[in-house]
Structure formats: structure tokens, C-alpha cells
Amino acid sequence: MDLGIDEVELDRMNPRIRRLLEYYEGDITDERIALALDVAGDPGAEGKGATTPERLRNSILAHGGIIQPIIVKREPSGHMVCIEGNTRLYIYRQFHRENVTGDWSRIPAIVHDTLAEDGIDAIRLQAHLVGPRAWDAYSKAKYQWELQFKHMMPLDRLVDLCGGDRRDVQKSINAYADMENHFRKLHEPGEHYDTQRYSGFVELQSGKVKTAIFNAGFTLDHFAEWIKNGKIGGLATVRQLPRVLNDPKARAVFLKKGIKAALDAIEQPDIGADLQSASMVQLARALLQKVDSLPFGELQRLRANPDDDVIRHLGDTADAVRNLLTELGQLDDVG
Fold it and tell me: Which conformational region is residue 294 in: left (phi greater than 0), alpha (psi within -120 to 50 degrees), or beta?
């Protein structure tokens, strides 16, 4: 049913709200609840590609409402509490208060007249700890491409429904198109088509990467072959292609042995005698200590420079450790 937005209370026992309210003394205003819900937070504060409150707000606005109703419990006293969908309810209230175009006075809801506490917990756990099964990146890009080119949805409309990040949507669509045009034709009928390789085609959308490929006399067909035969892998190694292709010696090594060997040809890390003789335990603990004590300024610098050698070597180390733990049958135990 559709409920008036003021008929339903925000759930102050919701873990996301309660985490803040437990440490706050004073009147619980809508502004305080908004802070607890992260609705008023920095739209760039969450992980890349996450459904941030800002993206959710943009998508609701573009669609003119929510597709998935909020879930409400009707108490014996008659008053109603939103046990799932507090952020969506708050956004409706915000739109109504700010006179945003549209009818935001009522919100779709599923109302439970009888719901035990363990039923409430089950709903919260399913929605936020287990959650709906997210589509993988390739499937998302495929759907976006089909909406634009098969169903002729205008890009602006598609961007709005995805939450308003035009650059990410366009990059996804272009990466999917490049993968289908250049990677799929390398496969025989019935051969496994590894959609996990899509991440490499996402990084291909960098102007620097494509320019380096073309300037070195190669094509996107060559890039797809490098992806398929393992000469390059995911995002981290694709970012290094300009360095490798612009260096004649490294380029020759790359074409024979792959990008990791080519990067070693450009720069061999200076490993002193002390490090060479250190045990694996000592090296692991030293690296852990370095990571834990990384200054904030250095973290910011690395974020701004994804091609930095530190990131490349950390990625190589992570891959090697993960492979070793897999061989030892310990990967699941350490996450």
C-alpha cells in the first residue's frame, strides 16, 4: 500500500541509526538521523561503484519513485515503524520538504500487522548482511549497452537511472563494446568465455592506454590477444602498458614473456642483503607494520597516483601471497 510519509516513523533501533544515537545526547532531530543514515554524507566517501545515498537519491528522482517498497511494522498501538528502507523514506521526506517536482507525500510500503522480533532481524539481515545477489561488472555493462543500443534508451536517461555518474556509465558501455568486438572472436564455439577479463577492458578506456597501443603500432585486437593469453591481467597491469610499450627493450620482453617480466626489465627493485636473508615471517611482519603505519599523506598520494610503483609491487605481492595460500589450502581461513 501507499503510506503517507509522516505516518511512518524512522526506526531508531535500526543498527545504522543506533550506532550514532548511542553516543549522542540531546534531541534526536531529522538532521541527526540523516547523519546516522549517511544520507547527508560525502557522495564520494563510499567505495567506487557502491550505491551511495547520492546515487540512490538521483535514481529515485529520475524514476519518479522507488521500485522496491519499504517494509513497515504496525505496532499494537497502531503507529508504524519502518524496519527496512529508512534511507528511502528519509529521501522522500527530504524531496517533499524541499518541494522537489513530483508527489513525494506517499511512499510504497509492505505493511506487517504481526511480525515477531526474529522476523524483523531476518529482514534486516537479508537486506544488509546477505542482501540481493549483485550483478557482476560484466553483466551490468552488458545490460547498460543493451538498454542504449537495443532499446534505444537515451544516454542521459540511462545515466539518471544509474544514479547520475555519466563517466562511469559511458566507460562501462565502451568497455563492454570493446570486449565483445575484439575478445569474443578469439574464442572457438563452446570455448569458455571468461567475463572476469572485463576488468582489463575497463582500464583500456584510459586515453593513455589506447594511445600507447596505437603509437606502438598495435591494435585493440592485439590487446584482446594479450588479455586472452595472459600477457596482461586486470586493472593494475593494464595501467602499466604505456610504460612497457614506450620502452623498446621492455616491449620486446613483454611480447615474449608478459608484462611482469617487462616491468622487471624496466626496473629491478633494489633488494639488499639484509632483505634477501630475512625470513618470510620477518618480511610479512615488516610489511604489515609498514601498511598499518602508512601516513595519511602517503595514502592520499597513492590514491592520486594509481600507476605508482608502490601500488604495482603491492599488487604483485598480493597475487603471489594469494596463490601461495591457495596452494597451502589456507586462503579460506584468512579470508
Answer: beta
